[in-house]
Specification:
Blueprint: H1 11-21, E1 26-30, E2 33-40, E3 49-56, E4 62-67, E5 83-85, E6 90-91, H2 107-128
Antiparallel strand pairs: 1-2, 2-3, 3-4, 4-6, 5-6
């Protein structure tokens, strides 16, 4: 069996897709790094969140909730669920060691939906106190 090696998605293509899907967003590329800022609303009843994605070639995308800041915590909780850093609001949207995302994939098509899903689970968590988003803690 011949394994076909997929090409890395160029940063310019990543930026184009993000801007195409979210025309009101901001996106720039500098020093082999893409930074995207845009609003996501996980449901019609939910808040709009300002999200920042920082993607450096050879690394995984880092995702931050920039606004609202601070994010409200569920009753009785002292930290956000499923994050790398509560203070920075650096959210964990997938298990990096499972290789669910790589440089051949699209941030707009893969990462953005995962962020929206995390935000929806966050809103349920605030309302109920229980995290239903799964994941490895």
């Amino acid at each position: 069996m011949v394994k076909i090696r997929q090409q890395k998605t160029p940063l310019t293509v990543q930026a184009y897709k993000l801007k195409n899907y979210f025309p009101e967003s901001k996106c720039y590329i500098r020093n082999n790094e893409l930074v995207w800022k845009g609003y996501l609303q996980p449901s019609e009843l939910g808040l709009k969140y300002l999200i920042k994605i920082v993607y450096r070639r050879g690394k995984h995308p880092d995702v931050y909730v920039m606004n609202p800041k601070p994010l409200v915590l569920a009753e009785g909780k002292t930290e956000l669920e499923h994050v790398y850093n509560t203070e920075k609001q650096h959210i964990c949207i997938y298990y990096k060691r499972a290789n669910e995302w790589d440089e051949t994939k699209s941030i707009a098509d893969i990462i953005i939906p995962w962020v929206s899903e995390w935000l929806l689970h966050y809103e349920y968590w605030v309302a109920t106190g229980a995290w239903h988003g799964g994941g490895i803690h």
